[in-house]
Automatic annotation (TrEMBL), chains A, B:
Pfam families: Peptidase_S51 (PF03575)
Swiss-Prot/TrEMBL catalytic activity: Dipeptidase E catalyzes the hydrolysis of dipeptides Asp-|-Xaa. It does not act on peptides with N-terminal Glu, Asn or Gln, nor does it cleave isoaspartyl peptides
Protein name, entry field: dipeptidase E
Primary location class: cytoplasm
Cellular location(s): Cytoplasm
A cellular component annotation (GO) from this entry: cytoplasm
A single GO molecular function term of this UniProt record: dipeptidase activity
């Protein structure tokens, strides 16, 4: 019985950390009082303690306590015993590398597949897909491989950005990058715009928030799906 | 005797492929009639043949012939015998992976260190640095490692983009990404804006074009350097 939120971002422009999704989280985490936070992705190089404090402050608004995984002697046991898990954003390569380094991929996957509620934002969402090959992040460390948790049968592209038709910059658009991905990989990719999330309940995967998402399937033209669309048939 | 051009981009907005730098290339390649083109980075998934034709068309304007490395039976010998080499842009992970796969990193490094003129644009510039850890590209394939040719004692960030202060998008800025790089790596990074290039002549590394470049040194505040600045003291 999976119970997962895969969010494009933690923060919307002009609002506080997790603010836009707090009502949803209150419902989502209604069975949990304590949330295990995995701060490994370290956005902007923030320390584990400072990052955990940020999560703690946000969750205090819905009366949940938060503990950083780095404060446990044994992170494997911390995951096994967690009432709920939150993996925050930052750098996806750093996050994945740390999860492999601490030997946490299997225990994390098992816990989530067995029903421990999981919230991922940004990098924490990338790792829910099949691989991290559609992250937007810079490859600042070299992880042992690019395989992710595979909790959904596709890849995530968080912070999905539509092409800026007025730009004079010649770097690739997000859409071009994902199309290049499909020259070497066949699995679908969901481009999740900021403010969108996927709600996974067992075998159901539903798009939430007010925006459409962009779906990229191998050898198909990309297309939009509206909120409340069931995405579990993608493969 | 190194003789290298490390260009941020192949193409400026509103002009043809390589057009902005053709006069410089005419001078740079004045000892070469034939240029060996390495199309491995495949921008947008273009075929090797089509990509080579694009390079051939541009270089025909300065009376140089271009041959794709994929048309040679033995790419090692093609590099050893090349009068000059051009590695075009596209996906840096794909490019690096192909170079390792074909066993070309050492022969390419040796040829360039021995004086074969080398032009890199975008991905072809990323591989001139110490590692590809400051590429902007999506990690669509997993290369055997992130080590690059190390022709200059720093990393390149091509298509460098200043933060857009009007944006409501919450993805990391380029500057934030490079600062995150420095949490795990100590070597300098040069952010090369589109239209800029580095001209490497033996031990000299000079910024060219009309724009300044942004230099990121470990534990220092980022700063700008003006065209004609000598960058060989960075390390």
């Amino acid at each position: 019985m999976k119970n997962i939120i895969i969010a494009s971002t933690s923060t919307l422009h002009g609002s506080d950390y997790l603010e836009y999704i707090l009502d949803e989280l209150k419902l989502f985490f209604n069975q949990a009082n304590e949330i295990l936070f995995i701060p490994y992705a370290r956005p902007g190089g923030i320390s584990y303690d400072d990052y955990t404090k940020k999560a703690k402050d946000a969750f205090s608004r819905i009366n949940k306590s938060v503990t950083g995984i780095h404060t446990f002697e044994n992170p494997v046991i911390a995951i096994e015993k967690a009432q709920a898990i939150f993996v925050g954003g930052g750098n996806t390569f750093v996050l994945l590398n740390q999860l492999y380094k601490h030997g946490l991929m299997t225990v994390l996957r098992d816990a989530i597949n067995n029903g421990t509620p999981y919230l991922g934002t940004s990098a924490g969402s990338n790792i829910c897909g099949l691989t991290i090959k559609t992250t937007n992040d810079m490859p600042i460390v070299y992880p042992p491989n690019f395989n992710a948790l595979g909790l959904v049968p596709f890849n995530i592209n968080p912070h999905y950005l539509d092409p800026d038709t007025t730009s004079k910059h010649m770097g690739e658009t997000r859409e071009t990058r994902i199309q290049e991905f499909h020259n070497f990989n066949t699995n679908p990719v969901i481009g999740l715009r900021e403010g969108s999330w996927l709600l996974v309940k067992d075998h159901s995967i539903v798009l939430k928030g007010s925006l459409s998402a962009r779906v990229f399937e191998y050898q198909k033209k990309p297309y939009e799906v509206e909120p409340e669309t069931e995405l579990n048939a993608l493969k």
